[in-house]
Design a protein that fits this description.
Elements: E1 7-8, E2 17-18, E3 23-24, E4 34-35, E5 40-43, E6 47-50, E7 55-56, E8 66-67, E9 72-73, E10 81-82, E11 87-88, E12 97-98
Antiparallel strand pairs: 1-2, 3-4, 5-6, 7-8, 9-10, 11-12
Length: 101
Amino acid sequence: RSCPAGNYSRAGSSSCSKCPAGAISQVAGSSACEVCRAGTYEINRQVCNACPQGKISAVAGSAACSPCDAGRFAKEALMCEQCPNGTISAAGRSECQSCPS
């Protein structure tokens, strides 16, 4: 029998193994799992999805994305950047806002 998507088996195996967190197999019958690249996270060990705005995964093989801390923002899903002078942000934001008058 063939292992379902999200699982794999090596030649001579008698059972299927789940892909590790942060890795996927998109099709049934896989012999290995692919590690999700930085900026993405795995869903059900079957697909790598881009991190939502304001969240990052800085390393390959992430099972989840992390929100940026308050005072930081994420334009891209790879790193949090510090808000420029005169601006602020709450945690998990994709942009900074001007300070209120």
